[in-house]
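Technical note accompanying the year-one report. For the benefit of new consortium partners, we illustrate the data format agreed upon in the data management plan: each record pairs a sequence with a structure-token string. No post-processing was applied to the example shown here.
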Amino acid sequence: MPSKSDKTALTAAEQPDSGTNETSAVQSAQTGPSGPSGAPEINRSLLTAMQKERIKAEFELDDNPQKLKAAPSPAIADGPSDAELFRPARPVATPTPPRPTQSVPSTESPVDTHTKEEAAFTEPAKTDQSETEKADKSDRTPPVAKKRKRFWKRKAFWIPVILIAIIGWLAGVPYTRFHLAALFIKQSYTVMVSDVVTNKPVSSATVIIDGRSGMTDKDGKVRFDSIKPGDRQLRVSKKYYKDAEQQVVVPIYGDKGSRHIDLIATGRQVPVSVVNKLTGKAVADISVKAAGTEVKTDKDGKASIVLPADKTDLEVTVSGSGYNQQIARIKVTDQDVEQNHFGVVPAGRVYFLSGQSGKIDLVKTNLDGGDRQVVVYGTGKEDERNTVLLASRDWKYLAFYSKRDSGPAKLYLLDTSNDKLSVMDDSRSDVSLVGWSGHDFAFTSNRTGAKQWDAGRQAVKTYNAEKKQLLTVDQNQAEGDSANNKFQEFTNPYLVKDKLVYGVEWFSYSGSDLADRNDSIRMVPVGSQSKKDLRTFPAVQYNAFQANVYEPGGVYYAVWSVVDNKYSFFEYEDGQVKDVDIDQDKFFNTPYPTFLASPDGTKMFWSESRDGRETFFVGDKDAKNPKQVGVIDDGAVYGWYGNDYLLVSKKGSELFIMPVSGGESAKVSDYHKPQVSYRGYGGGYGGL
């Protein structure tokens, strides 16, 4: 309750007619000296924190003084008086009496007086507004909000800690550990199956784990990926074996899991072996099937198949990737017998001409000569000198030149993917074959019935087998008439890598002047018409171009000079023609080999005559570092089949195949060799 002196001071303030000096003195002593406006100035240092809170709560004090006018009057509200609120918190020294001033009777109401006093109290706070605002804001935070904030700070720290502790506890329990790990971890798991008696791998066995199924390979293994860790049921089964079932544990971490299972056979163990029929080497991963069961050979080409013991002989199917399937008989015995040794033939078909029927047929067989089939039957119109078969390096396409009716011979394309025959060039012309460059076939044609002074009588052409597109690369020039003319001839065309190189010569009839004409060695990239003369010669001085392929990528040219009465020699290599120092004997009498490039272009195959026998070699792409791979009397190179096998001929009528690594050759078939040979032709196969 307010003290008596406080009430006295308040009463005096409320009475405007009693403005005595004593009342002013009492107020000055309690509140301090008056401010500039005449209102009593409150000493803020005398207020306690609790008193400040009570003032703010009582008058709803904030930074906007306008709200103070709307606050309820302290004279009306219940609670302590202003004198009590502003009482000093501790005893202070007696203040010096203020200088007397004239008392002016107050006309303001008690509410107005309070407002002025409070305005005088809040005025000094503006001198340090920033810190006061901060204090006010912190003071305004409700205690409940502060408690919530502290609670959530503690919660943000403790929730992760508690979760980690729970997970760690669960991970320590085996049952929950595997279930938790299965949510995040997947493992690989390998099952190895073998025969309990022979201890050999059991291939083609069915393995089931965690609802997933797999089959063992040639080593008796099957691997499962992304298996959930924990206890899993494993089951293994195969015909003529007892089923095996086990409970296994797929580990969470560490080494990849695995399990070895032994099966017990209910039939007879039959040992088998498989080799490559052409090379005699063991073949792995070959499937041997009989009586509804199957095994696969290991790296040594061996396996053991369990067959019903009450059988003595069964049909067996032997097959594998890259090999032709074959049907044979297997003897049901646990002994190693010759009947159960099988030879498989690499997959593929070789094409050749055959006169076996009395006509010239185009036939195909497996690489061992098996499964012989006639692809194009002869008509009986065939001409020995105009029947030629040349294969592309990959054996996808064949150029087949043949006379099949009463008209002239035509150039055909055979697509070996479907054995479909189509015409490359249907113009009525005589064709001279050049060879294959990739899937482009090059040839020259002479138009039937054309005169030598007709321009375009002779042409160089290419045919793209994939696009079925014919391209005229070059045509000869000519002028004049039957009495007096001059014309060009294309001579000695060769395929050198991906370039077509040939001679261009001018000839005259009845004394036509060639002084303004040049012969040349011309080159054009296969599949284009971008001709380029690499070396030119005055037509009146040089003629009689001749050429020899002396090495892969290199051609010698001999050009006769009518002025010097001798040959000049030149060399084409890498797109250039330059002089070369050789003599006539080296050019004309040296038996240069025909170099056949492998399908991938990394190796060369050729033969040389040594001691009266034909010796075969394989070297690098430049025919360097040769390795002898075989010797055949009266033999010749025929081609490649893939990059692993070589085709050779014997006596011009027998076709053999051998591995590129060398060894014994196996006969494919007898065949018909045309009278025309293509020495030096290395763009494809079958020219010799």
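Partners are asked to follow this layout when depositing records. The CA atoms of residues 355 and 672 lie 6 Å apart.
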